[in-house]
Structure formats: structure tokens, C-alpha cells
Specification:
With 565 residues, the chain is mainly β. Helix content is 2%, strand content 45%. Strands 17, 31, 32, 34, 39, 40, 41 and 43 form an eight-stranded antiparallel sheet that branches. The chain is elongated. The two termini are 38 Å apart.
């Protein structure tokens, strides 16, 4: 762990706030090829620490930068930190997973106004390194690639062992602007133009669970790890604890031993759970044996009272002989009905109802879709999409009229994967947008992932790309995404090679179909509509993810199974 001072990280693809301590994980990945490249946009640092000398690295937009910007040493007042820079100078840190050891040459793309602002220091793992300090641009008023140093040698660092290391960039002269850093094991390698694409470590870069509208857990013992304390029954049917594996993979669950009678036998919490005039998300794992009818969740004043004034969940629980994940909503009316329970609906035969992982959470009105990946790419709910039950805990209900989630500017890189659970409303027609960073129109610059060909309900999955003048799209066969019902969508986009793949419910529906290689991948992105307020999504969406690499078939399968697919 490293203790740091004031740090704000705003870096396009990696956008996060760094606290007092920072877990050590790699952001960048060395290429295993013969050149051993590591390429980093300067603005995509992991930690930015102000200097004891009063200088700091700040965002810069001098024309000609690559990526989303550059970093400038300020205040640009003539500060020169030739020695003692590891202690005194402002510092940028880049965490790298190295797969090669030995000499790595340090290339810097920099810009200088004059000879008092044309140099910078590099180091490794917080140490000053004489072979990588005083890196010199040597020309002024334009972006220049350099590995030259004021000592007359090529800048280099020695990496050992392989694994996680931190590259340090320290200010030597304020006013210097750094745009990109490239490391290579090849002494003959020379970058040109904007340099190679960033070599980002494969990771989850955005994860919107879309359950942020759910409040704290109301059930005190819904996991039944060792007992069924806190629950009681009413009627001839009984409850018992079972010491065995349940549907969520844990050990221990509750069994409702159902008697064959016409009554509404039930089990419920002893303590109060729900409150008047509130809506709750209810979820659990269950299975049944022997019974032929349905059950239903409810709230009431006391377990002995269950009449027409009780509040009932919106969906009934149907028999299932295998463990099944179930979720629904329960709206409590103006009466005080604090007791939560589940009742059989009259005569359903005799048998058992096993249940585990019972969760009851209030649905709130927050307008933020939190990015749980840790990268801080939070989304903003626009025009009131509604929090509701989902495939995995909560979800968002989009009205198909004007609801969407704005993720702001998001840099997807050259290879990325988008994953989401979707449940399109029955009867919806025309394009149903899952995610897009562009407006409508096949050639509009950016990408669009959606269901249905324009003007139809053919249920094809589309990955559409445009560069402003031409279009390239990958399209599945018809009926790939049937609706209504939950379906797991995975779109794998290889911009570098112009290829796309896609899966629906763990079945590949697009295989190496051609797309463009030059569509915009770093601009405003929406969930649920295109960026020109067109082709809105009508239905529920849950657990939206973005990865900066192509998921393998086994990883797709794991995601599908984790969602109860």
C-alpha cells in the first residue's frame, strides 16, 4: 500500500477517485511480442501526487495530443528540480504488469516551449534511476518523441523480476507537457505519430449493476446459515432448517413442509420488516416438491391476519423442482403491515417449498447508476427510468419513450466487450438500443448495439459502427433475442482488426463479422438510447458491464451462469 496526499484521477477509460491508500493492481500490460511494448497515455495515470516544491501535474489540451489529453507541469514559473526529485517533484505513477525482464527503453512524447521547459525524469518503483533521468525533448513548439537524455545516453530502466512494477514520471522543469510514454525492450524501435495504442491490462472497466435504487436489507435472517431463527408459521404446515446446499451455493436453507388443506398456510417474520406506502424488491432462491399450485409473498399486520386488506407481491411463485432464482415487487398500502411472509394459495397439494437467500429491500429514488468496477464511471438516470426487480437483484425499467442512462465520455479502447441482461417489453418494435456512443444513422461516427432491424421486430442483434462517411455492421440471424423474457447479451468488438462477435444466452450468434476499424471509441455513451435521443429501449435492463478486452467463450459462459441463466 502507498500513502498519498491529494489525488484526483480523471482519465477517460480509467476514471476514479483515489483515497488515502491504494490497492496495487496493474492498469497497463506489457505486450509479450518481440518488442515488449508498454504504451501509456499520460493522462491515464494511476496516482497523481503534488510536489513538495509547489509544482503539480495538471490536465492539458495542447493541440495534437493523443488519447483524451496530456499532462503539464505547473505553475510554469521556472522551477527546475534537477536532483532530489523523488522527494520534491510532482509525480505521476503508472502500474504495469511486466512479462519481460532486463533493459526497457523509455520513450516520451513531449512538448516544450523553450529550453527551460524541455525535460522530465523517469524512474521505477519510486526510485531515482540515473539512466532514466533528465530525458530531453530538444526541440520546441511541437510534439516530439524522444528517448535522449542530457547525459548523452538513451533513457532506460532495468526491470526485474516480471510482474507488477510502477513507472514514475517526475517533473524536472515546469512547463513541460507529456502526452504519452512507451517502454520497449527493442533498442531499434522508434515510435511515430501518436505512437502505439495503449496496452491496457485486461480488466472490467465499467460495471453498472443497476440495483442502486435498492435500500438496506430488511431481513435479519434470510440466509439460514445455521438456523431459522426469526421466522414462524400459521396453519397446519411447518418450517424446519435443512443442513444442505441451496440454490445460491451456500449451506443451509429453510423448508416449508406444506400440508394438504384448503387454507392459506404461511410462514412469516416475527419482527417487523415493511412500512406503509413503500415498494420493496423481494428476491430469493427456491425449489418445490410435490405441490401443484402457487405461493405468494405478502405483508400484513400480524401473521394470524391474512385477508383482502393484506398487501400482495406482484408475481406468484410457481412450482419448480430445481433451484430457481425469483424476484418480484411488493407494494405496501397505507395500513401498517410490518410482517413479511409467504403463503400457499389455498389447496396446492402436499409437499415441500425450500427457500434461501431471502432479501427484502426498499426501492428508492436515487438518480445515479454507480459504477462498481471502481473506475468511477457513474451514470446519470435521465427522464426517470424506474428501479425495479431484475435478473440479479435490482434493475432499471425503461419506458421506451425518453428514459436512458448517460455514462458521460467513455473510452472503450481498441478491443472491448459489452455485457448486459435485457428483458424487452412484449410488443416492442423498431430498434431497441442497449448501448451506444453515437446518434442514429448507419454511418454516424461511433458504435451502436441494439435489437431489431429498423422498422421491424425481427429480434436480430446488431453491432453497428460508422466513421462519419461509411458504415460497417455485424448482424445476427432473426429471433436471436426473443422477448419478453430475460436474455444475456454479450457483444465483443475488435476495432483493431475490424471484427465483431456476439453471444445471446451463452450461444454464439455473430462470428467474426466485419466492422469498421476507425469508428469513434471515446465519446459520450448512453445506456438505453442513441446519443441523438432516438431509438429508446423499452423494458428492463440489468448488470451492464464493459471490459477492455475480448471475453473468451468460457468467460461468457461464467457470466451467463452467474446470472442464473
Amino acid at each position: 500500500m502507498k500513502i498519498i496526499s491529494v489525488v484526483v484521477v480523471v482519465s477517460g477509460l480509467f476514471l476514479m477517485m483515489v483515497g488515502e491508500s491504494e490497492a496495487q493492481t496493474a492498469t497497463f500490460q506489457q505486450d509479450g511480442g518481440s518488442q515488449g511494448l508498454v504504451s501509456m497515455e499520460a493522462e491515464n495515470y494511476d496516482i497523481n501526487t503534488s510536489g513538495a516544491n509547489g509544482a503539480s501535474w495538471v490536465a492539458d489540451s495542447t493541440a495534437g495530443y493523443s488519447g483524451t489529453g496530456a499532462m503539464k507541469a505547473m505553475p510554469d514559473s521556472g522551477i527546475n528540480q534537477n536532483t532530489g526529485y523523488a522527494v520534491n517533484s510532482p509525480e505521476l505513477e503508472y502500474r504495469i504488469n511486466f512479462v519481460k525482464t532486463g533493459t526497457h527503453y523509455v520513450w516520451v512524447r513531449g512538448w516544450a516551449l523553450d529550453g527551460s521547459s524541455d525535460s522530465v525524469h523517469a524512474g521505477l518503483d519510486g526510485a531515482e534511476i540515473s539512466t532514466a533521468d533528465r530525458i530531453l525533448v530538444g526541440s520546441f513548439g511541437s510534439w516530439v518523441w524522444t528517448k535522449a537524455t542530457m547525459d548523452g545516453i538513451n533513457a532506460s530502466i532495468n526491470v526485474s523480476p516480471i510482474g507488477l512494477h510502477t513507472l514514475n514520471i517526475w517533473m524536472r522543469e515546469d512547463g513541460f507537457i507529456i502526452d504519452k510514454i512507451v517502454l520497449t525492450t527493442d533498442s531499434a524501435y522508434v515510435p511515430s505519430g501518436n505512437g502505439p495504442a495503449e496496452t491496457l491490462a485486461p480488466t472490467l472497466v465499467g460495471h453498472w449493476k443497476l440495483d442502486d435504487g435498492l435500500g438496506a436489507e430488511k431481513i435479519t435472517n434470510g440466509t439460514f446459515d445455521s438456523s431459522i431463527t426469526g421466522w414462524e408459521t400459521n396453519g397446519w404446515s411447518t418450517i424446519s432448517w435443512q443442513n444442505a446446499l441451496s440454490g445460491d451455493g451456500s449451506t443451509g436453507y429453510m423448508r416449508f413442509n406444506i400440508d394438504n388443506n384448503i387454507d392459506y398456510d404461511r410462514f412469516a417474520t416475527i419482527a417487523g420488516v415493511t412500512s406503509p406506502n413503500k415498494t420493496y424488491q423481494v428476491s430469493f432462491w427456491y425449489r418445490t416438491s410435490g405441490i401443484t399450485g402457487n405461493l405468494r409473498a405478502f405483508s400484513t399486520d400480524v401473521i394470524g391476519t391474512l385477508d383482502t386488506t393484506a398487501s400482495w407481491a406482484s408475481a406468484q411463485i410457481t412450482p419448480s423442482t430445481s433451484w430457481t432464482y425469483f424476484s418480484t415487487t411488493l407494494t405496501v398500502d397505507s395500513a401498517d403491515y410490518p410482517v413479511f411472509g409467504i403463503s400457499k394459495l389455498g389447496s396446492i397439494g402436499s409437499g415441500t417449498f425450500d427457500i434461501d437467500a431471502i432479501s427484502v429491500k426498499e426501492i428508492t429514488t436515487t438518480t445515479t447508476a454507480v459504477d462498481s468496477s471502481g473506475n468511477g464511471n457513474n451514470g446519470t438516470l435521465i427522464n426517470g427510468p424506474v428501479w425495479t426487480t431484475g435478473k440479479i437483484d435490482g434493475a432499471l425499467q425503461f419506458d421506451g419513450v425518453d428514459d436512458y442512462v448517460n455514462l458521460g465520455i467513455f473510452n472503450f479502447g481498441s478491443v472491448f466487450t459489452i455485457s448486459a441482461w435485457v428483458n424487452i417489453n412484449s410488443g416492442e418494435s423498431n430498434i431497441q438500443t442497449i448501448m451506444a456512443n453515437a446518434g442514429s444513422g448507419a454511418a454516424t461516427n461511433g458504435f451502436r448495439i441494439f435489437v431489431n432491424t429498423y422498422g421491424t421486430s425481427d429480434q436480430k442483434l446488431w453491432i453497428e459502427t460508422g466513421n462519419g462517411s461509411t458504415a460497417g455492421e455485424a448482424v445476427s440471424a432473426a429471433s436471436a433475442v426473443p422477448y419478453a423474457g430475460w436474455h444475456h447479451i454479450v457483444a465483443i468488438v475488435d476495432r483493431a482488426n475490424g471484427l465483431a462477435n456476439a453471444y445471446v444466452d451463452n450461444v454464439q450468434v455473430i462470428t467474426n463479422d466485419g466492422i469498421l476499424t476507425d469508428f469513434a471509441n471515446n465519446q459520450t455513451t448512453n445506456i438505453g438510447q442513441m446519443t441523438n435521443n432516438t431509438y429508446r429501449f423499452g423494458g428492463k435492463m440489468d448488470d451492464v458491464r464493459a471490459y477492455n478486452y475480448a471475453l473468451s467463450a468460457s468467460e461468457v459462459s461464467d457470466l451467463y451462469n452467474a446470472g442464473g441463466g
